[in-house]
Amino acid sequence: MPHELPPLPYDYAALEPFIDAETMKIHHDKHHQAYINNLNAALANHPDLAAKSVDDLISGLADVPEEIRGAVRNNGGGHSNHTAFWNLMGPVGSDGVGGAPTGAIAAAITADFGDFEAFKKTFNETTAKQFGSGWGWLVCSGGKLKILTTANQDSPLTHGLYPILGNDVWEHAYYLKYQNARPKYLEAWWSVVNWHEVNKRYAVVKG
């Protein structure tokens, strides 16, 4: 079964004014769809791999034949990363969207970073420094929360780490509204973070 573009879980304009509707439409309908198209093309002659979930593919890149590994890494990573990204955001004003975290992830952030503001500052500064295109992530490693970045569409899954929270800092994610001001985009993005989804993903890590 070919991979398919998951529908956006809210309207294109649901993240306004922090992320504009035009960016969301292009980002979801064009960029994400392109990753899926390219991934399906790479897997066309590998039905056993095509049957796997995209996260399983990315987690097991060593098992992907070398001749298609780069395409799967880039496009499968793009598909996996974006699928998580849409769900990690929510409509402005919705319960659990924006503001300070709640639930278990709030307690973990306080334990490992001191407080939410310190965590947010570190996340923004780390992600702003990602050279070129890439992502900023929150993962759990060794029982503690850690912030890291990956280049291009690389995923923490490839390194055995499950992404709890992630922000896309490819220019297509923010350039229409913020131009080259990546830090402004990073700051605004917290207003649309869906903490319910973050807690669900944290629960996967904690088991």
What does the model show?
There is one protein chain. The chain has 207 residues and is mostly helical. It folds into 2 domains: 68 residues, Fe,Mn superoxide dismutase (SOD) domain (Helix Hairpins); 104 residues, minor pseudopilin epsh fold, CATH 3.55.40. The protein has 9 helices and 3 strands. Helix 1 packs antiparallel against helix 4. It is globular.
Number of domains: 2
- Residue stretches low in confidence (pLDDT < 50, at least 5 long) are none
Q: What is the class of the largest domain in the CATH system?
A: Alpha Beta
Distance between the termini: 29 Å
Report the CATH topology name of the largest domain.
minor pseudopilin epsh fold
* Rg, Cα atoms, Å: 17 Å
Strand order of the largest sheet: 2-1-3
Question: How is this fold's topology laid out?
Answer:
Blueprint lengths: L20 H22 L4 H4 L3 H6 L6 H22 L15 H11 L2 H13 L5 E8 L2 E8 L13 E4 L6 H4 L3 H8 L5 H12 L1
Antiparallel strand pairs: 1-2, 1-3
Keywords:
9 helices, globular, 49% helix, Helix Hairpins, 3-stranded antiparallel sheet, 207 residues, minor pseudopilin epsh fold
Short overview:
This protein is mostly helical and 207 residues long.
